[in-house]
Amino acid sequence: MSINAVNLLWKIRSKTIVDSVSFAAEPGKMLGLLGPNGSGKTSLLRLLAGLKKPTSGQITLDGKNIAQIGRRSMAQRVAFIEQHATTNASLKVIDVVKLGRFPHRSMFSGWTTADDTAVTYALERTEMTAKRNDRWQSLSGGEKQRTHLARALAQSPQELLLDEPTNHLDIHHQINLMRLVSALPVTSIIALHDLNHAAMFCDGLIVMQAGKIVASGPPEKVITKALLHDVFSVDARVESSPYHLKPHIHFVR
Amino acid sequence: MRHFSHFAVLAAVLLASAVGISLIVGLSVGIGDMPIPLASTYAAITNRLGWTTVDLSRIHETIIWDYRLSRALVAVFCGAGLALSGAILQSLLRNPLAEPYVLGISAGASTGTVAVIILGIGAGSISLSMGAFIGAFAAFFFVALLSNGTRGGADQTILAGVAASQLFNAATSYIVTTSGNAQQARDVMFWLLGSFGAVRWPEFALVSVVVGIGLIVCLFYARVLDAFAFGDEAAASLGVNVGRARLLLFGITAVMTATIVSMVGTIGFVGLVVPHAARFIVGPLHVRLMPACAIVGAIFMVAADIASRVLIPQQVLPIGVMTALVGVPFFAIILYRFRRAT
């Protein structure tokens, strides 16, 4: 069941940000969130992470309304990676990753072997083990993003929410990160701008426009010439890639 | 084995800090118009505790107990409290230039003080420090109100603090210029620059309890403060109750700062400089940073108090002048480093 949204509406004063959004994320699958700038992707992710409360509608985790789940319990199972979150504290990579254990520790408990195992796993999975003692400020963009991912993994989440994690990364690191996330044994919901990457790596896609879902389903069904024209205002041709058999988009000049 | 060595290091550091603080307190007590040897100071303390019965001059014992020891110990807790407050605000506001007075507390305290000194509010029933404390809290509530119960973001809180400082400073100037005479204006200025001259044991009792509780709360909240490293939203997604944590931590800094300001005036730069110095020594994690700030702040403040008394013979410089003289060059270094980092 994982994350389920029913008829979400979020308004700030009179402005509607997210409008009648309903969907169900399949457990263990990667769900891509597409849409032009300002279409409500980030806002939807914030609602799903429980950081903001919807004006109406509800979000459930395994059938339980997240409004009834405490902050800490929520953080024990849902990890959220914001867009360009940074710090001026000169934390080491290991310190940042250890932050992910915060929801699992009480104010008085010490560092346990379970904490240690989770952090070691997270560092290995993101290939940041060798950089564990490097300072945040010394990291490249790709390393910072991998550190955020490691921090999220240290939370031992069942659901992972990512807000445009590949922004500002070079193509190698973009593919690397997408591959890494798609191979994780978690349910992930990922906001993306690169449509080809979304088609290639995601199991399902949701396309948003002006706060509403305008298309959803497997990439083959969602990514069409008509949709690219209507939602993204671009002229494009879509073909099935002979290399990965997923849709591939050619933008036409 | 690893745990044992950790404890050994921790114990060694804490012991060294305790020795350092007692040494500088001893030095501070010994300095003055009538110099007192270090041994006499410690003997006077152990005598009073009933551990020893060393023969001491009555005058020495009186000076130590009635004047200098309380002053030195108040300086210890004021330094610790201001440094802790500065560290908390720098973390919560994610701003390396934040310090205990960004929430408008010093401006509020000065308004409270002039209201008592010049306007005579309370007609003698309100002491000067009470007036300062009330003023400080009025400013803090004003900031809390403007920044939506401190739930607004870091920038909103800083701007609210700036607005409160401007408002209360204007009120202070208004009262001084319209109602004050030259002597009163001078009194106000000296009070604002800070002085340990008037503190005795009752002040020590108050400040030690307030800062002691503050330190304990900070230690409990060390991990929460770490979780704020990437901002409020990141902290919330880690399960921190951001609104409650901010309100509690801002509240603690407000109580500590208001208590200190109302007692010894607005001593600047300790709360700005010491957290940075402590961070250079122990790194950014708060479980170590908090005690380090308390220790470094304590030593720095007593040292500044000593310097303020010995720099010019026969004259005590305001403590705020001393801390700023040391603090400003350090501040310049921070600014320089900050500029290079961005």
Distance between the termini of chain A: 42 Å
Instruction: Tell me what the CATH architecture of chain B is.
Output: Orthogonal Bundle
Residue stretches of chain B low in confidence (pLDDT < 50, at least 5 long) are none
Q: What shape does the CA trace of chain B take?
A: globular
**CATH superfamily membership of chain A:** P-loop containing nucleotide triphosphate hydrolases
Overall radius of gyration of chain B: 21 Å
Structural class of chain A: alpha/beta
Oligomer: heterodimer
Shape category of chain A: globular
For CATH, the homologous superfamily of chain B is named as ABC transporter involved in vitamin B12 uptake, BtuC
Give a written overview of the molecule.
The complex is a heterodimer of chains A (253) and B (342). Chain A has 253 residues and is of the alpha/beta class. Chain A has a single domain, classed as P-loop containing nucleotide triphosphate hydrolases (Rossmann fold). Helix content of chain A is 32%, strand content 27%. Chain A is built from nine helices and twelve strands. Chain A has helices at residues 41-48, 71-77, 93-99, 113-125, 141-154, 171-182, 195-201, 219-222, 225-232, and strands at 3-12, 15-24, 30-34, 56-61, 64-65, 78-81, 159-163, 187-191, 204-209, 212-217, 236-240, 247-251. In chain A, helix 3 packs parallel to helix 5 (141-154). Chain B is mostly helical and 342 residues long. The longest helix of chain B has 35 residues, at 58-92. The mean pLDDT of chain B is 86.
Q: Could you give a short description of this structure?
A:
Helix content of chain A is 32%, strand content 27%. Chain A contains nine helices and twelve strands.
Comma- or semicolon-separated keywords:
heterodimer, A: 253 residues, alpha/beta, Rossmann fold, six-stranded mixed beta sheet, four-stranded antiparallel beta sheet, 9 helices, 12 strands, 32% helix, globular, B: 342 residues, mainly alpha, ABC transporter involved in vitamin B12 uptake, BtuC, 14 helices, 76% helix
